[in-house]
Design brief:
Outer membrane efflux proteins (OEP); 2 domains; four-stranded antiparallel β-sheet; 4 strands; about 70% helix; elongated
Length: about 450
Amino acid sequence: MIQWKIRFAFILIVQFVAVLCVTAQEPTGEVDLSQPLTLEQCIQIGLERSTNMRNARLNLAIQELRIKSARAGYFPRIFSSGRYDFSDRVDFGFEPENYDLGLTGQYTIWDNGQREGSFAQAKESLNATLSRNEGIKQSLILQINQAYYDVLQYQALVKVSEQNLARAQENTQRTKDFVEAGSLIPADVATAEVQEANQRLNLLNNQNSLQIAQAGLPRLVGLDPGVLITVAEDEAYQLYQQRGTIERIEMSIEEAIQIALNNRPEFQEIQAQLKQQEWTLTLAKLQRWPRLNADVDYNVNLDNYLRERENFSDFRSWSAGISLNFTLFDGGILGNRVKELNMQLEQRREDASDLERSVALDVRQAYLTLKRNEATVDISKTQVTNAQLSLDVIQGRFEVDKAILLELLNAQTEYARVLTNQVNAFYDYKIAQTRLQDAMGVLQ
């Protein structure tokens, strides 16, 4: 009865420790959403709470445990054994019940470097995991940047749509006033109302897109999609509207590619994987070599001791020895394994070579896209200025009956279009800027 209580208490303690370990992996504390979040705050929350980063931390912990396991190969191993036999035979020296208890110790004296190889292989696996986690981190930061800018973009588009709708509503009312005064015909009211309906539809579409973007951002940072996250005002966009200028990249494509080759985590990961594969090949070759072990056994004939209750030393025995084990013939299994690993190592080296070309292409594409978007931002700024001047002129001519209603509506439609294009161009530029930083491996 006492033994069962001890076992039950031990199980409870193990479960309690397990709960503590799992709880340690969970993000602690509540996220304060009472104030608008900056991009940096969203990234910090995502790095702490997102599923990808939590799994990455768990993978790192697993690799650290594997290193400890590989290091344990340098220590001796001790095993305990117990046996209980029950039989109905009582003749010829057999007893109905038999008990045996023993301890076995084993230590590898020499294995031709297999333990060193296993330990080095585990360390390279850890290095590969660290580099992979850095890649996961940069990928998450890129996604959060894109989602954050999507929210800002549609917020700006909603404001533009509201301004365009207000302008269209005002124009419709003025048209009705002109019809009552006899200056315009009822068909002109219908034309103005069509433009107002179009602007109302644009506003509805942008509001819907904003709600979708606001639902996507919480999920990326590890929160429920139903949680409403408000984002801080975009100072970069406000500064652009004031000055009309943007930050430009000041490096060549070749410089950007070189930065990527030095910083992309994929290179560190594949180099660690190459070393890990080389150690796997080395260990396979070492399997052909002998392994020298020292063995110690200590046994107690517990059945006889419990029955006779005499000198304990008469019922115990021990032995020590050295064993040398190696494979004489295995039908070619080891040889085939070495050939297979050689081929896999060659594949990994080819992957490393292809990765360099792929990264160079990614950087080149991101660089050219950013340059195009920089030019698009400049063009959109000029278009807005020209459309504003044209609208002001036609508005003045319409006031003195020098322009027809259709000209005014067309000018307003064009102005609304270029305003929308300007918002899209700016945030396309910001996302392209982030993509280039990601392609160069410097996104933080």
